[in-house]
Amino acid sequence: MTGDEKPESRLSPYEDFSREEWAQLRQSTPMPLREAELRDLRGLGDVLSTDEVEQVYLPLRRLISLYLSATADVRQVTTAFLGREPVRVPYVIGIAGSVGVGKSTVARLLRALLARLPHRPTVDLITTDGFLLPNAELQRRGLMKRKGFPESYDLEALVRFLTRVRSGERWVSAPVYSHLTYDLVPGAVQTVDLPDILIVEGLNVLQHGARRRASAPTVLVSDFLDFTIYLDADQESIRRWYIERFLALVDTAFREPQSYFHRYATLSLAEATETAGRIWDEINQPNLEQNILPTRGRARLILQKDDGHLVHRIRLRRV
After folding, report:
1. Integer Cα distance of 145 and 306 in angstroms
2. Which end of the chain has fewer beta carbons closer than 10 Å to its terminal beta carbon, N or C?
3. Cα dist. 57→18, 123, 202, 228 in Å?
4. Is residue 1 a part of any domain in this protein?
5. Whole-model pTM?
């Protein structure tokens, strides 16, 4: 926490750390990943160096490890009070934030770091993309241009999935989404078999009930999360990162004939830049401002990135 804290900041539920202050909280946590492993975890356009992991994510690993122990103790107390046999259930971590801010990279990194804790927990990762409605259904409802907005998800299916996982069920399946075809993979499922830790990554995992439709479930995704992370950055930076990633995909994935965006593969640099900017301005920015950003204050931890994709401030909820 900074020494020159303003009076109004003391009213905030968050403790505010610079990167340097946060890095000191790593203590003796060892670095379990090699540089080659970091390259495999890094997403398109993301920055993931050894320094970034050591200064930002190893302190986070230590914090989550402490929360894991504390949560296990609380659950034991509860079951003892109720006179029931303990039931092993996963510790669920939610990661939220805008399109293009680096959620997938952070989710993969956390999975790798937590799986190397001393007691070697099993760690699974799912994305809420698998609970998007199929494109055919989105088209039927006129929602293709609102893909990623809350109404484009099968929230009831996602809540059912998390309910079964948190009830201690085994072999719980989730649909699989393809970013290449931009749609669900017919018949494909990802099975979660009672892991010690489950990471759930998605745009709206912290969504509250303020915008809930009357037909939507009264139980929210966030009700199932033990620890929550929001990746944050200036909107102009995120817009630029999105455009840069789009341009990189024009020369790679979009060239695949089966890609939903194959039609963009022949665009000139200027055309691709204009197209990416328009998609951001018409779809991703409104979703960020209306649905994603308002959930930031519900996160346990906020990782604030600078213009270079590096985390430079960390906010930890203290109440």
Report:
1. 29
2. C
3. 14, 16, 19, 14
4. no
5. 0.92
The 3-state DSSP composition of the chain as helix, strand, coil percent (nearest 5) reads 45, 20, 35
Q: How far apart are CA 199 and CA 90, in angstroms?
A: 10
The token duo for 219 is: 């139980």
Residue 285 lies in a domain: yes
pLDDT tens-place string over residues 242-274 = 999 999 999 999 999 999 999 999 999 999 999
Distances (CA, A) of 232 to 158, 249, 282: 24, 23, 20
* Domain-located, residue 219: yes
Q: How far apart are CA 28 and CA 133, in angstroms?
A: 45
For the domain that residue 231 is a member of, what is the CATH number? 3.40.50.300
Closest CA to 125 of 53, 197, 65: 197
The answer to whether residue 2 sits within a structural domain is no
Report yes or no: 54 and 27 within 8 Å, Cβ to Cβ: no
Structural domain boundaries, residue 283: 7-317
For residue range 68-77, what is the model confidence (pLDDT) as tens digits?
999 988 888 8
Q: Which amino acid is at 260?
A: Y
Compute the distance between CA of residue 199 and CA of residue 225 in angstroms, rounded to an integer.
Answer: 9
Hey, CA dihedral for 54, 57, 61, 66, is it positive or negative? positive
Closest by Cα among 318, 308, 304 to 18: 304
Q: Count of domains in the chain? A: 1
pLDDT tops 60 at residue 211: no
Residues with Cβ within 8 Å of 277's Cβ and at least 6 positions away in sequence, in order, are 239, 243
Max distance between CA atoms of the chain, in angstroms, equals: 68
CA atoms within 13 A on the CB side of 71: 17
Asked whether the beta carbons of 100 and 235 are under 8 A apart, the reply is no
